[in-house]
Every structure is written in structure tokens, then in C-alpha cells.
Amino acid sequence: MDLATVGYISCAVVIFLLAIRVPISFAIGGVAVVAIFTVFAFRTGTFMPERAFWTTLSLSFSSSFDLVHSYDLSMIPLFIALGHVAYKAGITTEIYEAARVWLARLPGGVAIASVAGCGGFSAISGSSIACASTMGRICTPEMLRLNYDPRLATASVAAGGTLGSLIPPSVLFIIYGIFTESSISQLFLAGFLPGVISMLGYTLVIVLWVKQRPEIAPRPTEVTPMNERITAALRCWPAVLLFVVVIGGIYGGIFTATEAAAISLMFATILGVSRRLIRLRDVIPLLRETMETTGAIFFIAACAKIFVALIALTGLSNSLVGLLDNAAIGPVVFLIMVCVIYLVLGMFLDPVGIMVLTLPLMIPMVESYDMNLIWFGVVIVKLLEIGLITPPVGLNVFVLAGVLEGKVEIGKIFSGLWRFLGIDLVVLTLLVAIPWLSLAIPMSMN
Question: What is the rounded average pLDDT of the residues 182-188?
Fold first, then answer.
């Protein structure tokens, strides 16, 4: 059997396993190991399993070992831990409180403050799901207490939580950078402006929604005194400092992304201890939460690396590039195909799983069209961001519903999200049509 055919069959089997709800790590890792073993066992034309066993074992372990011991991958546990510590130290709450008092006079001011708070938390944690979970505990109960419509109260947080995918630091950008061998620092900088545009788009949705239907949000009756607003803004100095360390340090060439993560985590921890909000007994739960999230991401990535080894062994990526050349598919049609594939996959799979499953196949085709990998990474992450709030399996929606403990039905949360999905598609179109929006800041470093 032709090696490329083995690759195509392996991909088909993975898709089938995912369709019957097999976890993606077991699906891609298991299929890759079996396929690699099959290739080596039939290398001479005769089935000789004794020759394939050690070769398969060596290739599988070396692929996953190299990934897990990657220096860049060490950023993931650092940024995840930073998100947990920042929440425990009260930094994320201060961001929300400052946004709330400054935006209270706007239509749907508390909902807008929730989106702004999500943006601020995203600039610290790098995880969309962690952002939705944390800000869901802070913002949504407050909006429900103020008699906001449950759809607006939940949808604004669920959509705002997706900003963790784009606004740096982003775990998805780290994984993308490792798998594509792109500069993670440039990816972080490239995601900043699209993240801000997305946040402004969500704000516009809330303002227009509340103006169209004033009954979904209470009418502001009090004006917060200026001295209280200034005090609330000044309390945000830890969050501003963390953001400056991550973005300013990377942009100025002072830190690498990994060094910025380590310094930020150290600062947040010292601040939490000095405020007596983090005690010795809190350390173990914080480390446990970090290890659980990191372990899940690392296991998926390690299995994906074995799948990458299978693709290289079978020459599947070269075969796909050849098919594109023969079909004479232009870059615009290719991009439309990519968007459709990711939007469909986003309805059923988690973002990390989608990325590690598709990147080994997509990147050779992207390079064949001579597309900029940094810009393409921003487009991919925006697509994955949309998947976080797309039914039937929008992870942010289920996380938020879990945090609220059934106070708002999942169907009601989804019903409030279609307006945010609409603005997401507009932003996605802009990012695809105007690469400058993603590349302006990274290019200014050169």
C-alpha cells in the first residue's frame, strides 16, 4: 500500500473516533502509533512485527519527549499559574471594579465593564476558559443582582471570555508557534490589535442591544464621584504593570515571552502574599489547578507530535499540496475552505484539539501559497475563538453554566450569543481581508 494512502486512512480513522466521542489525545496518539507500527512492519513487503516494535517505540517517544522538553512550552504552566494567582491576589477583581465605575453611565455599562474585565484578565492569564470561569464568578452574579436580562449577563461574559485566545499572552499562540516554528513573541504582538478590535466590537453589540431593548438592562441612576473613579483606576496598577511587563518587555526586546511569564508570576505571587490574600495553604490548590490544566494540554500536544511524525513518515502533507496544485485552487478559495473547516470543527472539539489535529496538515499547504504564518496564526486563533461560543459544544458556555450552578439555562446563554457571533464574523472578515491589522505591530519591531 502507498504510504500516502496509509496517511489518508489514518486521518479518516481519527475523524471516525472523534465522531464517536473518543478523547482527541487517545484518538490521534493511538491511531498514529498503530499506523507507524504498520508502516515499519510491512516495510520489506512481509509482515515482520519484531522489526517494527522498537522502531515505533523509539519514534513515538522521541517525538513526544522533544516536545514536552521544549523551552517555549514552559510558558504554558507559567501563564496558567499566573491567571490563578492573579485571581487569588484580587488583581482581576480590581480590573472589573475599575471598568464598572468608569462605564456605569453607558447603556449596559456593567456588561461592557464585564467585557473590559475579560480583556484585562486575558492580558494576564492567556486562557479563554479560565477567563470565562473567573469572570463568570465575578461579573455575572452582579449583573443578575442588578436585574440585567440573563441572556445579556451571561452572553457578554461568555463572549468576553474568548478574548483570552487573542489578547496576549495566549496559550493557543504558544502551541501554534511551537508546531509551526514561528516566533511566539511576534504572535503575541500580532494578536493584540485584533483582540482590541474584538473587544470594541463586543462593546458595540452591547450598546446597540441595550438601545434597541432598554428593558434588558437597568437605567443608571447614580453618577460615581470622580474621586472614586480615580481611586478605582489607581487600584489597577498591578494589572497594568503585568501587562507592561509582558507586552512592553517583549516589544522592547527586554524579555523573551518565557522570561516575561516567569517575572509576571513572581510579581503576582509577591503581591498576593504581601496583601495577605495568598497564604501557604493556598499554594497546593493553586499548583494542583495549574498541573491539571497543563497536564491535559501537554498530553494532547505530545500525542499530536506522534501524529506529526506519522504525517512526515507517510508524506501526507506533500500529497495534499500536490492535490491542491492539481486542482488549481487559489488562495482565496483555500482560505474559505479553512474557515469553514475550523468553524465546523469548533462546534464539536476544543481549541487545543482542533489546532494539534489540523496544523500538521494545514501548514504545508499555507507555505505552498507563500502566506505569512504570523497572520495565518491570528486568523486560526480567531476561528478557534469563535468555536468557544458556537453551539452545540461552546466550551465557554458550558464553563459559565457550571460556574452559575444552573441559575441560567445553557439554551438561554446560547440565545444571547448570536449577536456576538455576528460581530466575530465581521472581525474575522477584516483580519482575512486586511493582514495589516495583524502584522502592523510585529512589523514595527523590525
Answer: 88
